[in-house]
Amino acid sequence: MAGVLKRRAAWMLALLTLGTVSAMPQFRLTAIQQLGYDKLDPLWQYSGKVMSCTFCHVNKKGGAPWNVFGQALQQGFATNPKSNFSQVLYSVLAANGDADGDGYPDAIEVFARTLPGDATSHPDTPLAELEQAFQAAGGVTQYAPKVK
Ligand SMILES: [Ca+2]
Q1: What is the mean pLDDT of each successive set of 10 residues along the chain, which is 148 residues long?
Q2: How many angstroms does the Cα of residue 120 sit away from the middle of ligand 1?
Q3: Has this prediction a pTM greater than 0.90?
Q4: What pLDDT, on a 0 to 100 scale, did the predictor assign at position 97?
Q5: How many whole angstroms separate alpha carbon 123 and alpha carbon 92?
Q6: Cα 105 to ligand 1 centre (Å)
Q7: Centre of ligand 1 from the C-alpha of residue 116, in Å
Q8: Is 4 exposed, middle or buried (0-12, 13-18, 19+ CB in 10 A)?
Q9: Which of 13, 33, 49, 98 is in the most buried spot, having the most CB atoms within 10 Å?
Q10: SS3 80
Q11: CA 19 – ligand 1 centroid, Å
Q12: H or E stretch covering 136
């Protein structure tokens, strides 16, 4: 009896987990992998904690409205309507802009794992020091769209 209950509990957990994975929006899935955030947590697809929705959105649960970084991506789509999300994401980072105006360019914030669309979230490390580490790691080209 206990074995049956354990199996049922395991199935329920698996179903809930699958629901979490399939609920993650495609743009978020793409960005997490393109920017290497998946390397931080081997169970990132299940935890749902890697790269919060506020990376691009104002609200913690996503949807409208978008923050200034999300708006920069929307502008990228408007400027290059034939580009896919990966290309737009890369072009915004390669433009070396600072969407939230906190003094740290968007690509540097991605590298430092802070929020490029929230001025209250920024690295504590001096920019010059971070820039050096960023370039040593491959610079913005490390975020180029992956060829499939
Ligand atoms: Ca920021």
Answers
A1: 67 53 81 94 87 95 96 96 96 98 98 97 98 98 87
A2: 6
A3: no
A4: 98
A5: 19
A6: 8
A7: 4
A8: exposed
A9: 98
A10: coil
A11: 31
A12: helix 127-136
